Amino acid sequence: MSATPPRPLSLSARGPLRGTVTVPGDKSISHRSLMFGALAVGESRIEGLLEGEDVLATAAAMRAMGATIERGEDAVWRVHGVGVGGLMQPAQALDMGNSGTSTRLLMGLVASHPITATFIGDASLSSRPMGRAIEPLSQMGAEFNASPGGRLPLMVRGLCPAVPIEYRLPVASAQVKSAVLLAGLNTPGVTRVIEPVPTRDHSERMLKGFGAELTVEEGPDGRIISIRGEAELKPQQITVPGDPSSAGFWMVAASIVPGSDILIRNVCLNPTRAGLVTALRMMGADIESVDLREVGGESVADLRVRHAPLTGIEVPPELAPSMIDEYPVLFVAAACAEGRTVARGAHELRVKESDRIAVMAEALGAIGVAVEEHEDGMSIQGSGGEPLAGGARIASKLDHRIAMSMTVAGLVSRNEVTIDDVAPVATSYPNFYPTLDALTE
Ligand code: S3P
Question: Which segment of the chain is annotated as a signal peptide (predicted)?
Fold first, then answer.
């Protein structure tokens, strides 16, 4: 994947958001649909796949390891899998672009196959810690040759058969959990992950749906997830629900821009993902769930969001795993609320596509918001609904969610806000800016 040239964008306050928006398919579910389809025997069909760069990196990698993956003119993706154990040696390095999810989950798959793969990525991904996945996968027998600090580029040599382990997650990370479970798919016996703090459970739900023998129990030390290896996955028809993380930008934008009233269609409300809705409601946001239903084993609803005065809160730290990707835009909501918001217990933000605590503290500070950076979060003094000063150039640091969050901040800024590079938005939400234009027409 070649580096895209920077795309700067300037914006200033806009009128209310109105109308209906359908957010793109969930990124986590999209990655897993392609990976599991590529491991099933036969044809899986995927509707509503997120066609963002991160997911396309997963598709390219699965093709490089033998799967056939095609997008039909009907926008349905068809995946012919190679079967668990059937992944082939990729001829070249796997370019993961900006995508941590592709990297860590695929490291898990490679770890228990008799193949060697090199993972490379962009500057952001190459600065992120992979040791958290290397550690359990090494215990299963895979060998790693990583760049200093356990970073990309790194090489994985899989072991087949690998050794099943019982692994207690030291960090609340669905990517690490999934890496171990995916390695367990081709490992004889039972591989177990103990998760003291629940994180997004799409791997568990979907692997069961694909026919893997997977159980989840509540143990004294957290959730115990067991998968029996040498699994046979059966092809599936998947409808990917809308991404709650992408919906988050519109929830906050409509909440803070006076006069807004929007309907966000088809939002996945899996409880391990819905923390932002809870936090915004605590702040006084007017978010109504309409037509709660089930799509592909996930709860989905349409969300009607109307402008409402927000009040600062102490964000419950236990919400962190269910809204980990939403903190940047929550900080923007807090910047517009009455009073102070304190968010702690979110260390993990420091190792996302950027250090989201440092980058958001600097960005909000630059547009006139009083922020105090903590090691594990941030305190923010809100404007009480008054416009933010704006008038600054923001560095998005190859982080799509920083670019989109600061765009939302720009909608309520008195003076122009320039974002130095919005190209990374294409990793998760290629249609974000046209959608913004349509909502603010
Ligand atoms: C993801 C897990 C989370 C999240 C990421 C997607 C996944 O990462 O931030 O955007 O699909 O499993 P961590 O596992 O690092 O918390």
Answer: none
**Using a 6 Å cutoff on CB, does residue 399 contact ligand 1?**
no
Report how far ligand 1's centroid is from the alpha carbon of 348 (Å). Answer: 10
Give the domain extent around 54.
27-239
CA distance 406 to 422: 10
Q: Indicate if ligand 1 lies below 6 Å from the C-beta of 203.
A: no
Q: What percentage of the chain carries pLDDT values higher than 70?
A: 99
Do 248 and 392 lie in one domain? The reply is yes
Q: 100 a known binding residue? A: yes
Number of domains in the chain: 2
Q: CB neighbours (10 Å) of residue 340?
A: 16
The phi, psi pair for 162, rounded to 5°, reads -85, 175
* Residue partners of 2: CB distance under 8 A and separation at least 6: none
**206/248 same-domain check:** no
- Same domain for 413 and 433? yes
Cβ-in-10-Å burial (0-12, 13-18, 19+) of 38 comes to buried
* pTM of the complete model: 0.98
DSSP symbols for 174-192: HHHHHHHHHHHHTSSSEEE
What are the tens digits of pLDDT across the range 107-160? 999 999 999 999 999 999 999 999 999 999 999 999 999 999 999 999 999 999
Domain match, 197 and 251 both? no
State which of 239, 273, 298 marks the end of a domain. 239
Using the predicted structure, report yes or no on whether residue 17 has a pLDDT greater than 70. yes
**Are 227 and 152 in a shared domain?**
yes
